[in-house]
Sequence to fold (550 residues):
Amino acid sequence: MTLMQNAITAAPLLSVQGLTKRYGARIGCMGVGFDLYPGEVLGIVGESGSGKSTLLSCLAGHQRPDEGRILFDGADVLAFSEAERRRLLRGDWAYVHQNPRDGLRMGVSAGGNVGERLMAVGARNYAAIRETATDWLGRVEIAADRIDDRPSAFSGGMQQRLQIARNLVTGPRLVFMDEPTGGLDVSVQARLLDLLRGLVRDLGLSVVIVTHDLAVVRLLADRLMVMKSGRVVECGLTDQVLDDPQHAYTQLLVSSVLQV
Amino acid sequence: MTDQAYNFAYLDEQTKRMIRRALLKALAIPGYQVPFASREMPMPYGWGTGGVQVTAACLTPDDRLKVIDQGADDTTNAVSIRRFFQRTAGVETTERTTDATVIQTRHRIPEQPLSEGQILVYQVPIPEPLRFLEPRETETRKMHELEEYGLMHVKLYEDIARHGEIATAYAYPVRVEGRYVMDPSPIPKFDNPKLAGNPAIQLFGAGREARIYAVPPYSDVVSLDFEDHPFIASKADHACDLCGSAGSYLDEVITDDRGTRMFVCSDTDFCASRQAQGHRGRLSPQGATP
Fold:
């Protein structure tokens, strides 16, 4: 209920208009636009090569789009200086990589990984950093006695949970997730999704999640965008799009899911 | 005797000019690593090629040069570099810290406080303090540019998490004039406080990495730490066994195969001048006069 109220009353947290990225003559993504409201989870689905990862990396500032506007909290992100952009990336924004090795420092202990963002924004009290790190490891279901172990000693699922803790520790308002459950087996996936759903709800996060797994968006996303060949072909409430797909490609996508 | 086959101080004048320009820039931006066109020197990398180039660019015929290696005037590195400049520049050399105008050092700052007009030249193996945490040069430059130094504290955090205290004992990172984080070369952290407010000019040369940086006289230099784990300039908890000094940095010397050891000042000039003044340590010859 609060979600709906938020959506009606608040201004969009992230507003994207006409986002286009070309790779030479080829199209990465074309004319993508959407509004993301505080506390909302937006799923982006599509097959490989549909431009969803390009879109996400443009949104998160890893690549510069050729055209379009990205407004975060009303401010034009693309006009930001490098310093402002990087401050955003370690403060208000977070990015969860598909492969936890891309998002973690493998040579640094779990506690150090979680503490890095805190220290990057100026935390200089060891005991306080450690306490926060312990608290966050607990929230992502990693035992407190693993705090001094390196991520290389962790299983794939634990690494992914650690990456999530590392990203959320500074209380970001907007989280980008690139296939967060990719490469995990189904039971671990289910636990991770459960955890993510809890965190998103408790912290009121706004999330843009890219995946090719419809089950993931069914569980997590409030709204859904379906992409094909770099363009958005359909968007709407998740259940509506998945239960009553209008576009031929979405119908194909939904019917391709194996039923067990 | 000066070897006439070489230009004064080995390097040609254009090279010295290039190095001096880098030195001026380094002094203008304290702690900033200035790239320079490092030359091949007649010694292997890791033996002070950076320091030697900086010294060569600073020397004038009137200078008195002192070279120390881990505080000692009589070790291989110090002796060979001193002889190198005796031969190519013909400058006077000394072992006395107070008499020297230029001091090239490997991994120590002399115990004797330096004074205005002196130049201290450090040999630096790896100038980038963030290197072992972030291998990409493009990224570390960006981090310096944007003052993103959180990663440096991650290293200190790891120390405390693993050892219960900040175990980094040498090359302890410092922040110069509230701006650049700098690697003070592998000096023991005991020497870090001497970097700050020092009346001498401190120049750092890294030959292999082709970087020069500097700390101008009376600069503000702060060792990084945590509020609840403050920086401590530690040393071995002993007094020197030869001169009895309790406040100098000590080397531990194993004297037999039964675990007997002695502690002596790493700064040989400091130790010798204290002994000359009549100070005695635990293992000084009984009743002997120097």
